[in-house]
Amino acid sequence: MAFPDFPYPDVIAQFVLTESSADLFPGVPDLPASAALQSFLGTNLTLANLINTEKARSELLVAPVLSELWGRCGGRINLFSGIEFAADPAAQLTGFVDFLIGLGPQLPRVSTPVVVLFEAKRDNIAEGYGQCIAAMVGAQRFNQRAGNAVETIYGCVTTGINWKFLRLEGSRITFDLSEYTIQQPARILGLLAHMVTQAPAPSAAA
User: Fold this and answer.
1) What span, in angstroms and rounded, lies between the C-alpha atoms of 144 and 139?
2) What do you get for the CA distance between the two ends of the chain, in Å?
3) Most buried among 9, 93, 100, 102, using CB within 10 Å?
C-alpha cells in the first residue's frame, strides 16, 4: 500500500481520527502576489485550460504559486515537487507527494514537513482526500520520530484552479469550510504563509 491506497472515508477509521469542518483561517491576511506572478497566472490559466491535463495545471498554476512562496520566505522553508516520501514505511505510509513544504533551508532531503499537496484526479477534489490525509498522518509521525516540535500538519487537494485545505492536529482532521481559486493568488499565498510561519522553527539537528 501507499498514500493513494487509503481511500476516504476509510482512512479516518484506519488511523482512528475524528473529523470536523471549520473556518480554519479566521483573520489570516492575504499576501499580495507579485506583479510577475499575477501576469504569469493570467496567461497560464488560459493555457492550462486549453491543455486541460493535470500535469499542465500543476506546472502552470500550482508550481508558480509555491515558487513565489518559497522566494518570499527567504530560506525559511524547503519545497519539493514529485518527491517520494517514506513517512512511515512500517505503516505503509509512503509514496509520492505532488508537492511538499517543510521548514528549514532547502536540502536534498525532506526535513520537518508541514504542508503536503496533492493534485486532484479527474478534477475531483473529494477523490484526493484519502491520500492527502494519509500523507498528513505520515508527516505527523515523521516529525514525531525526528523530535520536530510541529503539532499541526496542513494538507491541500487542488485541481490547480480550485484549492481545498485540511488541518491535522493530534487525531483530529478538519476540513476548511471554504474552497479557494487560483484567481485569488493573494489569498492562497496568505494562507500558505500562515501555515509555515505558525509552525516552530526546526532544531539544528532536524
Assistant:
1) 9
2) 27
3) 102
d(CA 129, CA 79): 21
Query: What is the CB neighbour count within 10 angstroms for residue 73?
Result: 17
In sequence order, which residues have a C-beta less than 8 Å from that of residue 46 and are 6 or more positions away? none
Task: Say which CATH class 3-197 falls into.
Answer: alpha beta
Q: Where along the chain do its domains lie?
A: 3-197
Task: Please state the pTM of the whole predicted model.
Answer: 0.94
Q: Is 200 helix (H, G, I), strand (E, B) or coil?
A: coil
147 Cβ partners below 8 Å, 6+ apart? 203, 205, 206
Helix, strand and coil percent figures for the chain, each rounded to 5: 40, 30, 30
Residue with cell 504559486: 65
Angle of helix 185-197 relative to helix 35-51, nearest 10 degrees, comes to: 110
Residue bearing cell 487525531: 171
- Provide the pairing of β-strand 93-103 with 152-158: unpaired
| Structure confidence by residue, pLDDT tens digits, 175-191 | 999 999 999 999 999 99
User: What region does 155 belong to: left with phi over 0, alpha with psi -120 to 50, or beta?
Assistant: beta
DSSP per-residue string spanning 111-129? -SEEEEEEEPBTTBGGGGH
